[in-house]
Amino acid sequence: MNPKKWLRTILFCSCLTLLHSCAKNPPDIPANQVVPTEHQIAYQEMEMIGFVHFTVNTFTGREWGYGDESPDLFNPTALDANQWARVAKETGMKQLILTAKHHDGFCLWPSQYTDHSVKSSPWKGGNGDVVREFVNACHEYGLKVGLYLSPWDRNHADYGHPRYLTYYKNQLKELLSRYGEISEIWFDGANGGTGYYGGAREERRIDRTSYYQWPEIITLTKQLQPNSLIFSDAGPDIRWIGNEKGFAGETCWSMLNSDDIIVGAADPAYLNTGDSHGAKWVVGECDVSIRPGWFYHEDEDSLVKTPQQLVDIYYRSVGRNGVLLLNIPPDKRGLFHEKDIQVLKEFREILDETFKVNLAEGKHVVSSNYRLNHEKFSPANMLDGDNRTYWATDDGTFQATLEIDLENEILFDRVMIQEPIKLGQRISEFSVECDVQNEWTPIAQGMTVGHKRILRIQPVQTRKVRLIITESNNIPAISNFGLYKASEKE
Ligand code: FUL
Questions:
Q1: Is 231 near ligand 1, meaning CB less than 6 Å away?
Q2: Which of 129, 206, 328, 337 is deepest in the core (most CB within 10 A)?
């Protein structure tokens, strides 16, 4: 064979092989322009994490310490970080975030840059390190570790002066280099005001747009902890959801135009819903405390939220494409209070009971369209219990109907939908209908889905359910669909 012929034959054969392997395993659908990082996906999948607010405030009864609290006050009698981590693990949390330093400036680790820390306290004769014990406990129970380092410091004499930034960055360096992998670092938005400030006892205001030099702090954090995710009003990775009730918007995009957001002066409504046209993926984190305050106060023992209230918060956070960050403040002993533990356990039991059986799993489903008619995109993928497989449509098809036959009449009152977010958040309008005496009757509707959307509906008993996607910013895709009957205890 002459060389030209050879080349043609080889080219022909390679094309055939390529076509064949594409047919066997076609590529994923084209991803949206804005997609999450691998760490953000893992973060959204955690769904529920815990907050641990603990400092001198625990002993003074305050929410915001003034900064003049004596370290002598910090003396937990039975601090046991293993108890925190054990309870968190048992109740379904995947990560804990500790207030290493709150606005009062007291440090839970022996920082070399200040004496206003555990090393000046009577606890363990000044030789203790709460951050170390916390990190070890998280490791012991397989939880990820997060730390809160308040930018506002009401104790430090230099607060408001550029010198304070050197101090702040040094503290950040200590925390991010001494304690192994830190998965989330929390930059609070509360900033500037009255304080002790090394004895000045005055009001200090800072320019929120420029004072902290956020870009430098972010670069430093990522240099020291490349896998960490940074929380603030403006991300870059995780954003505040705009309220402290733990409620994401009914419509909640993971995208945001975060560049113009000023930490501490963001528009809560914008953070709450995200932005369908947002240029960055910034996951919404829904923070809320199990008690009225963020810190433990004995007089709030009777005001711990009920398991049912927590379940409601779960639906409004995790069920709306957010991550729930639930605060459980240790008491003066340094332990989660018995009341809080009891509530958390009942909360977990309710969720486990409700979501134990997906009544739609493995049932027969047909779609108005599925991509290439290939099994990789078949509607059966959304009922296979595997979040990695998904249904999707052909290019150009932005609307679709998926009809599920439940084989028998089934009673349910929760509908769960998930998108394969590694490819972006797409769906912007959908509805759910069920067959009532041969008539399709609407039972739920919404705008966004994202990682997870759960809709609470009136109980219905039906054999046929359909999901109608009416609007999508790209061809739609669904990785999971579920029907559940809520626990009687909800
Ligand atoms: C707020 C703080 O001012 C509260 O004390 C608490 O830490 C909460 C999580 O964030 O902005």
A1: no
A2: 328
